[in-house]
Fold this protein.
Amino acid sequence: MKKILVVVGGGRPNGNTNQLVNAFIRGALDAGHEVEKVSLNKFEVKGCIGCNACRYGKPCVQKDAFNDFVHKIISADCIVFASPLLFWTISSKLKAFIERFYCIAEEDSNPSYGRYEKYPVKDAALLMTSADNFFWTYEQAVSYYKFTIINYIGFNDKGMVLAGGCGDTNGRPQIDKTEHLTEAYEFGKSIY
């Protein structure tokens, strides 16, 4: 059994992204994993201000909900980042959450990639939804995920579900008319 933390960076309460996340969670629970879902719509998490006060082992000086999430991040085996596609990338709420990982880094005496910190080793996955479904729709979001979460922070990539073609942004969610919910369920069930 693994501990999976799903961080949802926006979207409507019953929208495409939440439906995709819930399908993933059902699959992970059916596989026997412990899953916790956190919606950033319900919490204020500010972006990093680059003050370096958190270096090393000190809490972030910003007094917001992220400080309450640190223990959840540390104890999770896998962090699933979920977001609707907004302006061709992840939501600003999810990006602010990721920026704050800076305060959980530790000093690294043998840094790779020119960085001077190391992060806890975790698994990661990406869940996203969008109205568009072009070959380039997720290019920016996937690039950010792979560079920042996988290559720089150093998490292990467990995969992604990129649910394009989920209906017009002005209308009702239409993810249920696609195969994406089944794909997300199977992904959650087989992530480990």
Observations:
- The chain has a mean pLDDT of 93.
- Helices lie at 16-30, 66-75, 92-99, 139-152, 180-190.
- The longest strand covers residues 156-163.
